[in-house]
Amino acid sequence: MFQFLRRLLSGNRNQSNSPKRMLQMFDRERQNLQQDFFHAAAASGKPRGLRWKNCDWLATYVLVNDEATGTLTLFCGVNVSFEAIEGGDMEGVEAVSMIRDGSAVFHAREGRWGTGGKVLFNVTPQTAATVAASGQSIVAASD
What we know:
Order of helices and strands: HHEEEEEHE
Number of strands: 6
Number of domains: 1
Strand content: 35-45%
Distance between the termini: 45 Å
Low-confidence stretches: 1-14
Largest sheet: 6 strands, antiparallel
Number of helices: 3
């Protein structure tokens, strides 16, 4: 009887973290998650000497699954712009105004999405999935 209950409960846990369901949840919570990402990234102090100015969200994404931990990782395409912090090392550097492409990183565990504000610069979501999440399986991607 306990084995039956264990299988039943573990099946529900896996279903609650299913890629399809988690992508739907991300879409419902997208605005808040994007704001959380921006605030965490801006508070990180990276890149040094720059202030996060804007983050434009692209339609590109790749979702990967780490079967060992049950964690889903979503790489979302972004275009980020910065401004130099007054009196800092980057003030007066022309390249500061250039928009940078990258992939914002989100993780889902136990049915919840979160972010630490990490962005992989100069990397598309597809490249991030194959390099940064090496060994994990791609379960969904934008067209």
